[in-house]
Amino acid sequence: MKHFIAAPDASEIDRLISSALYYKQSPRADKLLGEGKRIGMLFMNPSLRTRLSTQIAAQNLGMDAIVLNLDKDGWKMETGDGVVMNGSTVEHIKDAGPVLGSYFDIICVRSFPSLTDKEEDEKDTMIRSLIRHTGKPVISLESTTLHPLQSLADAISIREKSVPGRKPKVVLSWAPHIKPLPQCVPNSFAQWMNVLHRDVDFVITHPEGYELAPEYQGNATLVYDQQEALADADFVYVKNWSSYNDYGAMPAVQSDWQLRASSLAHAPAAHIMHCLPVRRNVELSDELLDSPRSIVPLQAANRVWAAQAVIASILKSL
Ligand SMILES: NCCC[C@H](NC(=O)CCC(=O)O)C(=O)O
Ligand SMILES: NC(=O)OP(=O)(O)O
């Protein structure tokens, strides 16, 4: 694997899941694979899980991991072509990229969308610029459009909790929030579930106005009625996102979309998922989050094995 910025094909996802489950059993099995190699992790936005799990994964493979909070500790980066840099940006990615490429064997970056400029956000400029100007493999730690390490951990968790021989019904259910959030997590989850369509029945439910970009919604079944969508679900992935069509807006919602135990009257076996961080009792009730139905801690724990499988695959291709 060269870069990890979106869902690979179904056979590659299968290989990554197998590799992740192998590392989960034997975390240090490949402790010499990354010896003498360095991974650089650049953050333009906050993180708890992605930062720590990716560092642990790299260390399990013998790599040195260095984190730079580019938003706080780096020079403000310019990515535009031909810009006269007489404003707030100090350093161009054309100059910083080769520097980073000389320091690191693998480069990772987190860069959230503006949610104000759709066209710009859809370009995933930071990821594309790093690929172009560092010459090194790039891993997305959540970009302006996708969050593939999260989706791999989600796919691993679904695989682990699925009943053998039964194709699970997986429902992505929109949840309320106090502020507009990116579409990256639902875009990415939908992209992965659509690739895995032979393994899962995938349904999306959200209020009108919260349609995802058609390229990510893909062939998912869209059901606007949350109760109808949740019936007989095996997995319910709860997540807020802002409007894509009215970009970054929060169109008014008439009914209560918070997921509670009572929402699952017709889905008695459903496992509850969320990528975290979660706003308790806004998106999801305490009752569900604190119940054995929640596999949220499993998803977060699987972030280590997801990252380890991806980094190992890239190291093997160097
Ligand atoms: N990396 C996982 C989710 C990150 C981000 N959540 C947030 O920004 C939550 C912020 C808050 O709750 O105030 C998102 O939804 O894409
Ligand atoms: N789920 C997730 O990506 O969490 P962080 O934002 O804490 O990394």
Task: Describe the fold and architecture.
This protein is an alpha/beta fold and 318 residues long. The protein is 37% helix and 14% strand. It has two domains: 156 residues, Aspartate/ornithine carbamoyltransferase (Rossmann fold, 3-Layer(aba) Sandwich); 149 residues, Rossmann fold (3-Layer(aba) Sandwich), CATH 3.40.50.1370. It has twelve helices and eleven strands. Strand 1, helix 2 and strand 2 form a beta-alpha-beta unit. Helix 1 packs across helix 12, helix 2 packs across helix 12 and helix 4 crosses helix 6. The mean pLDDT is 98. The site of phosphoric acid mono(formamide)ester has 8 residues, from helix 2.
Order of helices and strands: HEHEHEEHEHHEHEHEHEHEEHH
CATH architecture level-2 label of the largest domain: 3-Layer(aba) Sandwich
Bound molecules: N~2~-(3-carboxypropanoyl)-L-ornithine, phosphoric acid mono(formamide)ester
CATH class of the largest domain: Alpha Beta
The number of helices is: 12
Number of domains: 2
Number of strands: 11
Structural class: alpha/beta
Strand content: 5-15%
Question: In one word, what is the shape?
Answer: globular
Spatial ordering of strands, largest sheet: 9-8-7-10-11
The biggest beta sheet reads: 5 strands, parallel
In short:
This protein is an alpha/beta fold and 318 residues long. The protein has helices at residues 10-25, 49-60, 70-73, 93-103, 118-122, 125-134, 148-161, 184-195, 214-217, 226-230, 286-289, 296-317; strands at residues 38-43, 64-68, 77-78, 91-92, 106-110, 138-140, 169-174, 201-205, 221-222, 235-239, 271-273. Its EC number is 2.1.3.11.
